[in-house]
Automatic annotation (TrEMBL):
The lineage of its organism: Bacteria, Bacillati, Actinomycetota, Actinomycetes, Kitasatosporales. Gene3D superfamilies: Glutaredoxin. This is Glutaredoxin domain-containing protein. The keyword Transmembrane applies. Coiled coil: none annotated. Keywords: Membrane, Transmembrane, Transmembrane helix. The chain crosses the membrane at residues 30-52. Residues 71-127 form the Glutaredoxin domain. It comes from the Bacteria. One of its GO terms (molecular function) is electron transfer activity.
Amino acid sequence: MTRAWILPTLMVICGSLVAAGPITRGSPVLGVVILLAFLLLALVNSPLIFPGSIGAVEAQRRSESDGRPIVYWRPGCQYCLRLRMSLGRRARRLHWVNIWRDPDGAAAVRAVNDGNETVPTVFVAGRPFTNPDPAWVREQLSPSA
């Protein structure tokens, strides 16, 4: 779990250090703007931006009953973030599995990606799709899902 917070923590630390320069030189507004930019980057790269993750076994069980796709992801993944941001509110209509928190999820991803933990891997009706186009994923969401 701690490795999911390494990048956001580094961004906060770096932002604080970079912002300290303008602040000490008499430009507090510039320092605050820089710090806010780094805080925004830290938030976007943190696990907080993603819907609550569940385990792979639970996601498969739920997907079988409600037909919703399953997204296997990990914090810090640029492609996962792109998918998440492009889905907007619709992201809550998918089941999200953080492969860094769930060994079964990591194993499921490795099983369909030649032993690699390539994410996002989206399962739609039991079929895996590695790093699919976000527009395609939106099309897979039924209005009732």
